[in-house]
Amino acid sequence: VTEPDLRGRHVVVSAGGTREPLDPVRFLGNRSSGKQGYALARTAAARGARVTLVAANTGLPDPAGVDVVPVGTAVQLREAVVKAAADADAVVMAAAVADFRPAVYAAGKIKKKDGQEPEPIVLVRNPDILAEISADRARPGQVVVGFAAETDDVLANGRTKLARKGCDLLVVNEVGERKTFGAEENEAVVLGADGSETPVPHGPKEALADTVWDLVAERLR
Ligand code: C5P
C-alpha cells in the first residue's frame, strides 16, 4: 500500500517485551522480539501517519521518520503510551507486557547463602494498559487495537479477550515454541468488536501490519 491514507493521523504503537527487575542485574522478561511492532510503525509511517513507537527492550534500529520512546518496565510503558495516546487517532498495543512484576525490588544484587533455601519470588499485578486505554479513550473515535498470543482455542479465547479488554480490534495469533516469537513471518486472525473476522495468511509481518492499518483506516473514516 502506498496510498497515504493515514496522512494527518497520529498513531501510537507499542513494541517489544517489558522487563520487570528483581535486582540491579536480574529481571523477569519474555521472548517478544519487537519485530511486529516495528513493522506496524514502518508501515504506518509509509502510509503518511505521524508515529510514536514505544519500544520495550527491542535492540532494533529506530525506523526512519518515527518517534521512538524507549522504556523498560510495564509501568514505564504505561506512562509513555498514555502520554502519547492523549492526541492519538489510534493506539496499537503490540508489546508483550508482563502481567505481573516482582513485589520487591532489591537495591543490591540478591545473593545465595550457603545451606539456605532460596527466597520465593512474590509477584504483584501490573496495570492492564490495553484495558485502561480502551475504557478511557483520550479522544472520541480513537481506535484501539490489541494483540493476543494464544496456544489453544485461538478464536474462542480471542473473542473473550476482545470483550474483556474493550478494544476495537484484536489480532490473535497462535504461538508455540517455534511459532511467531522472533520470526520474520506471522499468521493471524483479526477480530473486530463489530463481529468481523479477518484472516491474515502466513506471510511477512509487514503484510499483517498493513491489514491492521486497513482496518484502522476504515474505522477512522
Ligand atoms: O491479557 P494478554 O496479556 O493476553 O493481552 C495481550 C494484549 O494486552 C496485548 O495487546 C498487550 O499489549 C496488552 N497488555 C497490556 N497490559 C498488560 C498486559 C497486556 O496492555 N498488563
UniProtKB/TrEMBL annotation:
Protein's UniProt keywords contain Magnesium: yes
Gene Ontology MF, one: metal ion binding
Membrane-spanning segments: none
Cofactor(s) the protein requires to work: FMN; Mg(2+)
Domain DNA/pantothenate metabolism flavoprotein C-terminal: start-end pairs: 6-218
Species of provenance: Streptomyces monashensis
Keyword Phosphoprotein on entry: no
Parent-record interval covered: 180 to 400 of 400
Stated name of the protein: Coenzyme A biosynthesis bifunctional protein CoaBC
Binding-site residues for CTP, renumbered to this chain: D99, K109, P127, D128, I129, L130, F147, K161, K165
Gene Ontology biological-process annotations: coenzyme A biosynthetic process; pantothenate catabolic process
The protein's role, per its UniProt record: Catalyzes two sequential steps in the biosynthesis of coenzyme A. In the first step cysteine is conjugated to 4'-phosphopantothenate to form 4-phosphopantothenoylcysteine. In the second step the latter compound is decarboxylated to form 4'-phosphopantotheine.
GO annotations of cellular component type: phosphopantothenoylcysteine decarboxylase complex
Region feature (Phosphopantothenate--cysteine ligase): 11-221
Protein family: In the N-terminal section; belongs to the HFCD (homo-oligomeric flavin containing Cys decarboxylase) superfamily.
Pathway(s) per entry: Cofactor biosynthesis; coenzyme A biosynthesis; CoA from (R)-pantothenate: step 3/5; Cofactor biosynthesis; coenzyme A biosynthesis; CoA from (R)-pantothenate: step 2/5
EC number, UniProt record: 4.1.1.36, 6.3.2.5
Binding note for cofactor: Binds 1 FMN per subunit.
